[in-house]
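Example for tutorial group B:
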């Protein structure tokens, strides 16, 4: 193989521009450094995906219509830090109007089933888990990853080992956490199952793998799980674009009434205050932007 075996930085924007940059283009800085320009973006465009991958790794690109496209990392154009990259539509055969919804890296596909999975979530609250092996045979025009109904769209994709907890967050600040085992593996062409019940005018904005930090009685991480519910239910409350003091006051009232309270946050100071008020706390492995603009 004539392609150098090295680590590179893969960057993709919300409007579908993607590029590959040598890791050596970035240098280590001390705390307080102003950083470096990693990508030039158009007005109102933002970086959506940023990860390090080996040049021989596979990059799976999922569209909002539920299709999966397949690239090797070295197929993505290598450009400098200041470049905006190339439109993803020029690298894979997307249909007109189709947009990139998610991008994940896979270093190597498993040789046996039930080792790694792809978990997908749509804006209407449908989730689906499919064996990663089902995505190992690419086609130029893409393959179906999940059947998406009219008015719905794929919004989030994660690779898992089948043993994680899943956290789903909605635009109106609701959240649910449940065991990944509750969603059985399905074939690529299946529609999936209901992951969360949505109220009127609400929609899912994020899905991520969850892990327990600690619960309301101070149980250490890795022991008693916090507020895990079956999928397809509504969770009473989550912390999303709420004033912290008002939220804590409401939490104390709910706890006094004998009801459990769940908070989804990556803010450890806020988490500590919530625990003191008697709440259970869940944190995502990556920042879970509950209440993000649609």
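The residue assignment follows.
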């Amino acid at each position: 193989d004539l392609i150098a075996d090295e680590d590179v930085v893969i960057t993709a924007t919300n409007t579908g521009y993607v590029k590959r940059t040598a890791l050596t283009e970035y240098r280590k800085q001390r705390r307080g450094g102003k950083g470096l320009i990693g990508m030039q973006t158009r007005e109102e465009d933002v970086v959506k995906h940023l990860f390090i991958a080996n040049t021989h790794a596979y990059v799976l690109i999922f569209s909002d219509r539920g299709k999966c496209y397949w690239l090797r990392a070295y197929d993505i154009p290598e450009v400098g830090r200041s470049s905006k990259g190339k439109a993803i539509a020029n690298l894979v055969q997307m249909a007109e109007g189709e947009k990139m919804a998610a991008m994940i890296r896979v270093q190597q596909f498993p040789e046996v089933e039930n080792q790694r999975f792809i978990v997908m979530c749509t804006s209407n609250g449908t989730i689906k888990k499919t064996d990663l092996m089902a995505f190992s045979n690419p086609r130029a025009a893409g393959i179906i990853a999940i059947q998406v109904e009219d008015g719905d769209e794929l919004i989030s994709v994660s690779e898992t080992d089948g043993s994680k907890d899943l956290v789903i967050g909605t635009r109106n600040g609701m959240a649910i956490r449940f065991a990944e085992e509750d969603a059985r593996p399905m074939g690529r062409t299946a529609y999936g199952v209901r992951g969360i019940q949505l109220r009127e005018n609400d929609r899912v904005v994020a899905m991520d793998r969850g892990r327990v930090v600690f619960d309301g009685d101070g149980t250490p991480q890795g022991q008693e799980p916090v507020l895990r519910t079956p999928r397809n239910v509504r969770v009473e409350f989550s912390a999303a674009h709420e004033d912290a003091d008002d939220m804590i006051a409401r939490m104390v009232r709910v706890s006094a009434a004998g009801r459990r309270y769940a908070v989804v946050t990556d803010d450890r100071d806020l988490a500590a205050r919530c625990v003191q008020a008697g709440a259970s706390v869940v944190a995502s492995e990556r920042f879970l932007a509950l209440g993000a603009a649609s």
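The longest strand covers residues 204-214. Compare this with the pattern of hydrophobic and polar residues in the output above.
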